[in-house]
Amino acid sequence: xxxxxxxxxxxxxxxxxxxxxxxxxxxxxxxxxxxxxxxxxxxxxxxxxxxxxxxxxxxxxxxxxxxxxxxxxxxxxxxxxxxxxxxxxxxxxxxxxxxxxxxxxxxxxxxxxxxxxxxxxxxxxxxxxxxxxxxxxxxxxxxxxxxxxxxxxxxxxxxxxxxxxxxxxxxxxxxxxxxxxxxxxxxxxxxxxxxxxxxxxxxxxxxxxxxxxxxxxxxxxxxxxxxxxxxxxxxxxxxxxxxxxxxxxxxxxxxxxxxxxxxxxxxxxxxxxxxxxxxxxxxxxxxxxxxxxxxxxxxxxxxxxxxxxxxxxxxxxxxxxxxxxxxxxxxxxxxxxxxxxxxxxxxxxxxxxxxxxxxxxxxxxxxxxxxxxxxxxxxxxxxxxxxxxxxxxxxxxxxxxxxxxxxxxxxxxxxxxxxxxxxxxxxxxxxxxxxxxxxxxxxxxxxxxxxxxxxxxxxxxxxxxxxxxxxxxxxxxxxxxxxxxxxxxxxxxxxxxxxxxxxxxxxxxxxxxxxxxxxxxxxxxxxxxxxxxxxxxxxxxxxxxxxxxxxxxxxxxxxxxxxx
Length: 564
Ligand SMILES: [Zn+2]
Prior knowledge:
The chain is an alpha+beta fold. Helices cover 32% and strands 18% of the residues. The strands form six sheets. Strands 9, 10, 11, 13, 14 and 16 form a six-stranded antiparallel β-sheet that branches. A four-stranded antiparallel β-sheet has the order 4-1-5-8.
């Protein structure tokens, strides 16, 4: 039976440089053989392939579609100097006609070659049970992404050469070896069209529409083309047969055309000169790959994306409005900017799929509620380039209102802890545009809160006389909430650490303020420490000029905590 046959499993892997083990079948050659023919496989690592393609593209040469083609093409060069310049690698795995070599099994072979100094593949295993072979092969389907080269399968061989000879060969196929192929991740299909999408910030992204093709068990109809340069560099034309690749969770993308399948009907593609949504001439900033529709805020395609972003969870969090509704509202002319969301009424949603009276009422309530979101969320909602939740919190904390942020110069914004020059420049640029300033005013007009919430109640005077600086991201409180909490107990908030600072409340990614606080021996609290301080302060009989605690030893390992 087959299970009694020792099998050797061999698959390409990293070079094996570890010392030879005293493995039972390992053979250390005592003498150098008179002649040995070494067979194996030449390959190119993915990193080397990418570097090669970069060089080829720079020199204006045709790039290779994949590492396999790159390796084969490198070997076929007429000029051996070119071949020598390519980062080719080799795995030895089979002996050819030789003299003075006594090998009796597949398993011995790589050990022997390695002892002679040839690179061999480390990823090989020997089994006695075929079920284990299958399990191992399946395991490699998941592991193949960890290899530094591409592999399309595993070769399973009967181990003993004697048994290999007995089994023989049918036609050209040995009966003692079989390939276990991984599901394909590369295939060929026809490029039917190149579609264009306009993003929230106006970036134009080309996408491939291909003849539907099964790729590793998934039907693929659309694939990424990255950008216009990518299409031009690879000379990808509409009508081309193209190689489509899908790896891991990455969306499928087009590698390049299969140039020798062209019949002359293929059409080169060019980035349109005007935005498909608003007909504004497209622009490309110097040094940038992306083309943009500069009609920022007005272009309907951008507006749909901006509405989607504005209502999203990290921003104003309006439930019941998604991509479809945004599209519909923009198409119907109901909204010309995100502030118009606050002018919607029940009629605006009339006739919209799945929008009955109850759902409409819920959406309107959601819109109304979103007026009082924290300032940081509103800043996120504006969709300023490079401004995410963390930056928005820093800006909200530092400026306190949209008006103040709008009035700030790039330098002033750059001075905010946690804000770098790129974000600062982007924010200043955003508010330098009249349309964006108008939008900010309009948001205020329609009742959106553009200031930090005012501290409504004073809970105690427990922190009176203490000055606090907050830095970094706290685990549960937003910057505003923490400030509110401190103020409501009589504490003061300052923007920078000085000798007058009583406490630094530090969260994640705290930077220069933390260092400064340590230097000045300011008490450092994390969020839990702040809560504990408030808890104990609230119980304290009277507020003191300064809390009695001695300054905590600044923690050396970056962990922030304080015992009270
Ligand atoms: Zn446009």
